[in-house]
Amino acid sequence: MARRTAILGNKGGVGKTSVAMRLAEALAREGRRVLYVDIDAQGNATRRFGVRWYEGVQGTNEAVLANKVGAVRDSIHQIKWSVGYADRIKLVPAWLELDDRIAEAGVPGSHLRLVKALQGADDHFDETLIDCPPSLSHLTQLALASSHQAIAVTEAEQDSVRGARRLVRWIAERAYDLHNEDLKVVGVVATRVDLTKSIDRAQLASIREIFGDLVWDPVIPRINGFKEIDSNGSPITGATGEKAGVMRASFELLAATFEKRSLTV
Ligand SMILES: Nc1ncnc2c1ncn2[C@@H]1O[C@H](COP(=O)(O)OP(=O)(O)O)[C@@H](O)[C@H]1O
Ligand SMILES: [Mg+2]
């Protein structure tokens, strides 16, 4: 079974998907086989990985809707990047219809549908990364009920830090209700941090004070190049400019921290 990691934050637009995708990429570059589950109906990772919707295509929505052991097998797609390591990243894509699954939150056992759908389907992967929406509602709960561990992503900004705090507390208090008592938050990743700005430095200090040892190195810097490669749906090798090396190095280091700080499953 793959190690399953939910990547989340209780605020939108802070860089969760960017961290999750570039982590997946760095792990794949090191030879790890990664299953990337997009469970955000915005489908940003899905678009950035180059996978498009067409009639009849299966994704996270269909795997959850199926309510069947191993259903994810029918929803696994090859990402469309033309780089050597791309064949080690597979995607379970998301589109708007995924939000329709929220209506089933009251159905008994519905929060266990993803863990059921993953059963046996991610055995031939080393890592399953689940990219969550910016809320703690049903779709995120499906991810948390399926995961061994969670990583909180935050900007160096007050509302985002409060969001990370809420979710760390939420997981500690509610993992039992998700039938996943062993779920652990193993890291807090600070991203889009501009260390030239005193406000970001102050917020970073407060992140370290709040989360202590949970804060991972490296802190991911705010670099315009991220917006470019994310907009273009490019691999990190497509990054240009003087900061391209910093971007690559940041995620190589993050992948090393991930290996070091993750639970053994
Ligand atoms: N380290 C960074 N530096 C600059 N821009 C970033 C960084 N990380 C992400 N971004 C940009 O911020 C925007 C939101 O990021 P995204 O990963 O989609 O956030 P979320 O998943 O939290 O909604 C995107 O345009 C993305 O390219
Ligand atoms: Mg996102």
Describe the SSE topology.
Elements: E1 3-8, H1 16-29, E2 34-38, H2 44-48, H3 60-66, E3 77-78, E4 89-92, H4 113-118, E5 127-131, H5 138-146, E6 149-155, H6 158-174, E7 184-191, H7 198-211, H8 224-232, H9 244-261
Helix pairs in contact: 1-9
This protein binds adenosine-5'-diphosphate and magnesium ion.
Give a description of the structure.
This protein has helices spanning 16-29, 44-48, 60-66, 113-118, 138-146, 158-174, 198-211, 224-232, 244-261; strands spanning 3-8, 34-38, 77-78, 89-92, 127-131, 149-155, 184-191. 37% of the residues lie in helices and 14% in strands. The mean pLDDT is 97. It has one domain: Rossmann fold (3-Layer(aba) Sandwich), CATH 3.40.50. The protein is an alpha/beta fold. The chain has nine helices and seven strands; from the N terminus they run βαβααββαβαβαβααα. Helix 1 packs across helix 9. Magnesium ion is lined by residues 16-17, 40, 44.
